[in-house]
Amino acid sequence: MRVITTVEELRAARAEATGTVGLVPTMGALHSGHGTLIERARREVDTLITSVFLNPLQFTDLGDTDDYRNYPRDIEADSTFCEGLGVDIVFAPSVEEMYPGGIPQIWVRTGEMGTVLEGASRPGHFDGVATVVNKLFNLAKPDVAYFGQKDAQQVAVLRRMVRDLNHDVEIRTLPIARAADGLAQSSRNVRLSEAGRSQALALSRSLRTLQEQVDAGALDVDAVRAELAASEGVTLDYLVVVDPDTLQPTSEPGLALVAATVDGVRLIDNALLG
């Protein structure tokens, strides 16, 4: 396995690659959820690239925030993790390497899809995501890119970016990786206390309740939202059901999305109902 840190090295490595090339973009702090993506990609492509880059553009105030400063960083552990799963190339650039000259002047704008839900709570977040993924697609030129369903809005935005900007890449998504207690795997989970982790289970419970309602033929999002908002330790941002392709609200079974702060940590989860 090679760990490379420059754009020049990545371009050279891509030029040498044969067969199908897969890309698993990450922000580091790799866990079993990332492992599921990497293992799937390893089975399906000839050359596997995993990027490890903590992108300041998708954080509040372009990274001038505690969420960015406190985000776990351990490239040695991440490299060891990748090597154990058969990754061929780890691309771990510095911020200066990805954005020479400082914050870029030209961004990918994600329009309405990027301003609702997480985009409303984190203005500019999806513009930052789309901008860095667009750069990674241009540099790594993958045939296939792998993302987790946990970031469902991100997947919808990136699928639309691929379509609108004519990227020659297929996006494949994998189901959410969950702990035994049902909590969606996230790098942020390590910041939860024992009590906070228990309280955070209210998010996945609310999604299961919505699915049970759909199974029974009586979807009542308002009731589930009120119950979740009243849960101990949970500060609810949103619980909605939207069309999975457009992210527009729907009264029919669709994509249920939830976001809340628990124990000072912002968490998201989702489920395709039906």
UniProtKB/TrEMBL annotation:
**Pathway linked to the protein:** Cofactor biosynthesis; (R)-pantothenate biosynthesis; (R)-pantothenate from (R)-pantoate and beta-alanine: step 1/1
Q: What are the binding positions for ATP in this chain?
A: 27-34, 148-151, 177, 185-188
Could you tell me where this protein is found in the cell? Cytoplasm
This protein's record includes keyword Ligase: yes
Coarse class of the protein's main subcellular location: cytoplasm
Give EC number(s), comma-separated.
6.3.2.1
Q: Which SUPFAM superfamilies match?
A: Nucleotidylyl transferase (SSF52374)
Please list the residues that bind (R)-pantoate: Q58, Q154
Q: Where is the active site?
A: H34
Q: Which GO terms describe its cellular component?
A: cytosol
Q: Could you state one GO biological process linked to this protein?
A: pantothenate biosynthetic process
Q: Which reaction(s) does its UniProt entry say it catalyses?
A: (R)-pantoate + beta-alanine + ATP = (R)-pantothenate + AMP + diphosphate + H(+)
Kindly state which keywords UniProt assigns to this record, in alphabetical order. Answer: ATP-binding, Cytoplasm, Ligase, Nucleotide-binding, Pantothenate biosynthesis
Annotated signal sequence range: none
**Residues that bind beta-alanine, according to the entry?**
Q58
Q: What class of enzyme is it?
A: ligase
Q: List the HAMAP family.
A: PanC
NCBIfam families per the UniProt record, alphabetical: panC (TIGR00018)
Family the UniProt entry places it in: Belongs to the pantothenate synthetase family.
Something else known:
The reaction proceeds by a bi uni uni bi ping pong mechanism.
Question: What name goes with this protein?
Answer: Pantothenate synthetase
Q: Which organism is it from?
A: Corynebacterium lipophilum
